[in-house]
Protein backbone atom coordinates (compact mmCIF):
# COMPACT_ATOMS: atom_id res chain seq x y z
CA UNK A 1 0.00 0.00 0.00
CA UNK A 2 2.81 2.42 0.83
CA UNK A 3 4.50 1.80 -2.50
CA UNK A 4 1.19 2.52 -4.29
CA UNK A 5 0.76 5.83 -2.45
CA UNK A 6 4.27 6.98 -3.28
CA UNK A 7 3.79 6.03 -6.91
CA UNK A 8 0.45 7.81 -7.03
CA UNK A 9 2.00 10.93 -5.47
CA UNK A 10 4.79 10.90 -8.01
CA UNK A 11 2.27 10.57 -10.81
CA UNK A 12 0.27 13.52 -9.50
CA UNK A 13 3.39 15.65 -9.17
CA UNK A 14 4.52 14.59 -12.61
CA UNK A 15 1.21 15.55 -14.17
CA UNK A 16 1.27 18.89 -12.38
CA UNK A 17 4.76 19.60 -13.63
CA UNK A 18 3.74 18.66 -17.16
CA UNK A 19 0.72 20.96 -16.98
CA UNK A 20 2.86 23.86 -15.82
CA UNK A 21 5.35 23.19 -18.61
CA UNK A 22 2.61 23.13 -21.23
CA UNK A 23 1.04 26.34 -19.93
CA UNK A 24 4.45 27.98 -19.90
CA UNK A 25 5.07 26.94 -23.49
CA UNK A 26 1.68 28.26 -24.59
CA UNK A 27 2.30 31.55 -22.80
CA UNK A 28 5.73 31.90 -24.38
CA UNK A 29 4.36 31.04 -27.81
CA UNK A 30 1.53 33.55 -27.42
CA UNK A 31 3.96 36.25 -26.42
CA UNK A 32 6.09 35.41 -29.42
CA UNK A 33 3.13 35.89 -31.74
CA UNK A 34 2.20 39.14 -30.05
CA UNK A 35 5.76 40.33 -30.34
CA UNK A 36 5.86 39.33 -34.00
CA UNK A 37 2.61 41.20 -34.66
CA UNK A 38 3.93 44.30 -32.94
CA UNK A 39 6.90 44.27 -35.32
CA UNK A 40 4.80 43.92 -38.46
CA UNK A 41 5.07 46.93 -40.74
CA UNK A 42 1.71 48.46 -41.62
CA UNK A 43 0.61 50.37 -44.73
CA UNK A 44 -1.64 53.44 -44.58
CA UNK A 45 -5.27 52.46 -43.99
CA UNK A 46 -6.47 55.97 -43.21
CA UNK A 47 -4.99 59.34 -42.29
CA UNK A 48 -5.43 61.30 -39.11
CA UNK A 49 -6.88 64.59 -40.33
CA UNK A 50 -8.73 67.40 -38.60
CA UNK A 51 -10.36 68.77 -41.75
CA UNK A 52 -13.23 66.83 -43.30
CA UNK A 53 -11.48 65.36 -46.31
CA UNK A 54 -11.70 61.82 -47.69
CA UNK A 55 -10.36 59.96 -50.72
CA UNK A 56 -12.08 57.68 -53.20
CA UNK A 57 -9.88 55.10 -54.90
CA UNK A 58 -10.54 52.73 -57.79
CA UNK A 59 -8.59 49.53 -58.38
CA UNK A 60 -8.27 48.54 -62.04
CA UNK A 61 -7.15 44.99 -62.70
CA UNK A 62 -9.55 43.34 -65.14
CA UNK A 63 -12.36 44.97 -67.11
CA UNK A 64 -12.62 48.45 -68.60
CA UNK A 65 -16.21 48.90 -69.73
CA UNK A 66 -17.09 51.49 -67.07
CA UNK A 67 -13.88 53.53 -66.79
CA UNK A 68 -14.97 56.35 -69.08
CA UNK A 69 -18.32 56.61 -67.28
CA UNK A 70 -16.44 57.03 -64.01
CA UNK A 71 -14.26 59.74 -65.53
CA UNK A 72 -17.29 61.56 -66.93
CA UNK A 73 -19.01 61.61 -63.53
CA UNK A 74 -15.87 62.77 -61.75
CA UNK A 75 -15.46 65.55 -64.29
CA UNK A 76 -19.07 66.64 -63.81
CA UNK A 77 -18.54 67.00 -60.05
CA UNK A 78 -15.02 68.45 -60.48
CA UNK A 79 -13.51 65.76 -58.27
CA UNK A 80 -10.08 64.16 -58.42
CA UNK A 81 -9.55 60.62 -57.17
CA UNK A 82 -6.94 57.88 -57.31
CA UNK A 83 -6.77 54.92 -59.69
CA UNK A 84 -4.54 51.97 -58.78
CA UNK A 85 -3.59 50.20 -62.00
CA UNK A 86 -2.25 46.69 -62.57
CA UNK A 87 0.49 46.47 -65.20
CA UNK A 88 -1.36 43.96 -67.36
CA UNK A 89 -4.39 46.32 -67.34
CA UNK A 90 -2.10 49.13 -68.47
CA UNK A 91 -0.93 46.92 -71.34
CA UNK A 92 -4.50 46.24 -72.46
CA UNK A 93 -5.96 49.73 -72.06
CA UNK A 94 -3.26 52.36 -72.69
CA UNK A 95 -5.79 54.93 -73.92
CA UNK A 96 -7.68 54.71 -70.63
CA UNK A 97 -4.45 55.13 -68.68
CA UNK A 98 -3.74 58.32 -70.63
CA UNK A 99 -7.33 59.53 -70.12
CA UNK A 100 -7.06 59.04 -66.36
CA UNK A 101 -3.79 60.95 -66.25
CA UNK A 102 -5.02 63.75 -68.53
CA UNK A 103 -8.08 64.21 -66.31
CA UNK A 104 -5.73 64.97 -63.40
CA UNK A 105 -6.34 61.91 -61.24
CA UNK A 106 -3.68 60.14 -59.21
CA UNK A 107 -2.35 56.96 -60.78
CA UNK A 108 -1.02 54.42 -58.31
CA UNK A 109 0.70 51.08 -58.78
CA UNK A 110 -1.29 47.89 -58.10
CA UNK A 111 1.51 45.46 -59.13
CA UNK A 112 2.27 44.11 -62.58
CA UNK A 113 0.22 40.89 -62.64
CA UNK A 114 -1.79 41.01 -59.37
CA UNK A 115 -0.10 38.18 -57.41
CA UNK A 116 -0.03 37.55 -53.66
CA UNK A 117 3.21 39.40 -52.92
CA UNK A 118 4.01 37.60 -49.62
CA UNK A 119 4.37 34.42 -51.68
CA UNK A 120 7.07 36.05 -53.82
CA UNK A 121 10.76 36.49 -53.04
CA UNK A 122 12.24 39.96 -52.79
CA UNK A 123 13.49 39.97 -56.38
CA UNK A 124 10.02 39.10 -57.71
CA UNK A 125 8.36 41.68 -55.47
CA UNK A 126 10.64 44.43 -56.75
CA UNK A 127 10.02 43.24 -60.31
CA UNK A 128 6.25 43.42 -59.80
CA UNK A 129 6.51 46.99 -58.54
CA UNK A 130 9.08 48.31 -60.99
CA UNK A 131 7.52 46.74 -64.10
CA UNK A 132 4.20 48.44 -63.38
CA UNK A 133 5.91 51.73 -62.54
CA UNK A 134 7.76 51.64 -65.85
CA UNK A 135 4.60 50.96 -67.85
CA UNK A 136 2.69 53.80 -66.22
CA UNK A 137 5.59 56.24 -66.55
CA UNK A 138 6.07 55.36 -70.23
CA UNK A 139 2.45 56.31 -70.94
CA UNK A 140 1.97 59.27 -68.62
CA UNK A 141 5.46 60.68 -68.07
CA UNK A 142 4.95 60.41 -64.33
CA UNK A 143 6.25 57.66 -62.04
CA UNK A 144 3.79 56.46 -59.36
CA UNK A 145 4.55 57.07 -55.69
CA UNK A 146 1.46 55.24 -54.37
CA UNK A 147 1.10 51.48 -54.17
CA UNK A 148 -1.77 49.17 -53.26
CA UNK A 149 -1.19 45.51 -52.48
CA UNK A 150 -3.07 42.97 -54.62
CA UNK A 151 -5.77 41.36 -52.48
CA UNK A 152 -4.67 43.72 -49.69
CA UNK A 153 -2.04 41.07 -48.92
CA UNK A 154 1.35 42.18 -47.61
CA UNK A 155 4.25 41.24 -45.34
CA UNK A 156 7.37 42.94 -44.03
CA UNK A 157 9.54 42.11 -47.02
CA UNK A 158 7.05 43.63 -49.48
CA UNK A 159 6.74 46.70 -47.25
CA UNK A 160 10.53 47.03 -47.13
CA UNK A 161 10.82 46.86 -50.92
CA UNK A 162 8.37 49.76 -51.17
CA UNK A 163 10.37 51.71 -48.61
CA UNK A 164 13.50 51.15 -50.70
CA UNK A 165 11.67 52.62 -53.70
CA UNK A 166 10.35 55.61 -51.70
CA UNK A 167 6.73 54.63 -52.33
CA UNK A 168 3.72 54.93 -50.04
CA UNK A 169 1.71 51.72 -49.47
CA UNK A 170 -1.99 52.58 -49.22
CA UNK A 171 -4.88 50.33 -48.20
CA UNK A 172 -8.35 51.52 -47.16
CA UNK A 173 -10.56 51.84 -44.10
CA UNK A 174 -13.91 51.75 -45.97
CA UNK A 175 -14.66 48.91 -48.38
CA UNK A 176 -17.67 49.51 -50.64
CA UNK A 177 -17.73 45.80 -51.57
CA UNK A 178 -18.78 46.93 -55.04
CA UNK A 179 -16.96 43.90 -56.46
CA UNK A 180 -19.72 41.78 -54.91
CA UNK A 181 -22.20 43.56 -57.20
CA UNK A 182 -23.56 45.70 -54.39
CA UNK A 183 -26.13 48.19 -55.62
CA UNK A 184 -26.15 51.89 -54.83
CA UNK A 185 -28.18 51.73 -51.60
CA UNK A 186 -26.02 48.92 -50.25
CA UNK A 187 -22.79 50.74 -51.06
CA UNK A 188 -24.05 53.96 -49.48
CA UNK A 189 -24.96 52.08 -46.30
CA UNK A 190 -21.43 50.73 -46.14
CA UNK A 191 -19.69 54.02 -46.94
CA UNK A 192 -21.56 56.96 -45.42
CA UNK A 193 -21.88 55.84 -41.76
CA UNK A 194 -18.15 54.97 -41.65
CA UNK A 195 -16.87 58.29 -42.96
CA UNK A 196 -14.36 60.14 -40.82
CA UNK A 197 -11.68 62.74 -41.64
CA UNK A 198 -8.88 61.01 -43.54
CA UNK A 199 -10.90 58.00 -44.68
CA UNK A 200 -9.86 56.11 -47.81
CA UNK A 201 -12.67 54.40 -49.74
CA UNK A 202 -12.07 51.30 -51.85
CA UNK A 203 -13.96 50.88 -55.11
CA UNK A 204 -13.27 49.20 -58.46
CA UNK A 205 -13.44 50.54 -61.99
CA UNK A 206 -14.97 47.31 -63.33
CA UNK A 207 -17.64 46.64 -60.70
CA UNK A 208 -21.13 46.23 -62.08
CA UNK A 209 -22.97 49.07 -60.32
CA UNK A 210 -20.15 51.44 -59.36
CA UNK A 211 -20.27 53.79 -62.33
CA UNK A 212 -24.03 54.28 -62.16
CA UNK A 213 -23.88 54.75 -58.37
CA UNK A 214 -20.92 57.13 -58.21
CA UNK A 215 -22.91 60.36 -58.55
CA UNK A 216 -25.19 59.44 -55.65
CA UNK A 217 -22.25 58.36 -53.50
CA UNK A 218 -20.43 61.63 -54.20
CA UNK A 219 -23.51 63.69 -53.34
CA UNK A 220 -24.06 61.81 -50.09
CA UNK A 221 -20.42 62.23 -49.07
CA UNK A 222 -20.59 65.94 -49.81
CA UNK A 223 -23.90 66.24 -47.93
CA UNK A 224 -22.01 65.06 -44.83
CA UNK A 225 -19.69 68.04 -45.23
CA UNK A 226 -16.71 66.16 -46.68
CA UNK A 227 -14.43 67.24 -49.51
CA UNK A 228 -13.14 64.47 -51.80
CA UNK A 229 -9.44 64.69 -52.68
CA UNK A 230 -6.91 62.30 -54.25
CA UNK A 231 -4.81 60.14 -51.96
CA UNK A 232 -1.67 62.11 -52.82
CA UNK A 233 -3.30 65.10 -51.10
CA UNK A 234 -4.63 63.29 -48.06
CA UNK A 235 -1.50 61.45 -46.92
CA UNK A 236 1.50 63.00 -45.15
CA UNK A 237 4.69 62.73 -47.20
CA UNK A 238 7.17 62.99 -44.32
CA UNK A 239 7.51 63.27 -40.54
CA UNK A 240 4.81 60.68 -39.88
CA UNK A 241 4.27 57.29 -38.30
CA UNK A 242 1.67 54.54 -38.62
CA UNK A 243 -0.11 53.52 -35.43
CA UNK A 244 -1.25 50.00 -34.60
CA UNK A 245 -4.58 50.59 -36.36
CA UNK A 246 -2.86 51.51 -39.62
CA UNK A 247 -3.63 55.22 -39.21
CA UNK A 248 -1.04 57.64 -40.52
CA UNK A 249 -0.32 60.36 -37.97
CA UNK A 250 2.12 63.25 -37.74
CA UNK A 251 5.09 62.79 -35.41
CA UNK A 252 4.98 65.24 -32.53
Write the layout of secondary structure elements.
Layout: H1 2-38, E1 46-47, E2 53-60, H2 67-76, E3 82-85, H3 87-92, H4 94-102, E4 106-109, H5 122-140, E5 146-147, H6 156-164, E6 168-169, E7 174-175, H7 184-191, E8 200-204, H8 210-223, E9 227-228, H9 231-234, E10 240-242, E11 247-250
Parallel strand pairs: 1-11, 2-3, 2-8, 2-9, 3-4, 5-6, 7-8
Antiparallel strand pairs: 10-11
Helix pairs in contact: 2-8, 5-6, 7-8
3D architecture notes:
The chain has two domains: 1-39; 46-250, Alpha-Beta Barrel (TIM Barrel). It is globular. The chain has helices spanning 2-38, 67-76, 87-92, 94-102, 122-140, 156-164, 184-191, 210-223, 231-234, and strands at residues 46-47, 53-60, 82-85, 106-109, 146-147, 168-169, 174-175, 200-204, 227-228, 240-242, 247-250. It has nine helices and eleven strands. The strands form three sheets. Strands 2, 3, 4, 7, 8 and 9 form a six-stranded parallel β-sheet that branches. A three-stranded mixed β-sheet has the order 1-11-10, with no helix packed on it. A two-stranded parallel sheet has the order 5-6. Helix 2 packs parallel to helix 8 (210-223), helix 5 crosses helix 6 (156-164) and helix 7 runs parallel beside helix 8 (210-223). The protein has 252 residues and is of the alpha/beta class.
Amino acid sequence: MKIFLVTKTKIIWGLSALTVAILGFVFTLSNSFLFADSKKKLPIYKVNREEKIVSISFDAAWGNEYTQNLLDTLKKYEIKTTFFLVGMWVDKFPDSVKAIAEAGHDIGNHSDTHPHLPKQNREKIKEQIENCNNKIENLTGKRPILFRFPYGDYDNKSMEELENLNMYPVQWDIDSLDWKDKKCDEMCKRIIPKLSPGSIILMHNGAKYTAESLATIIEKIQAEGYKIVPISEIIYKDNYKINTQGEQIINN
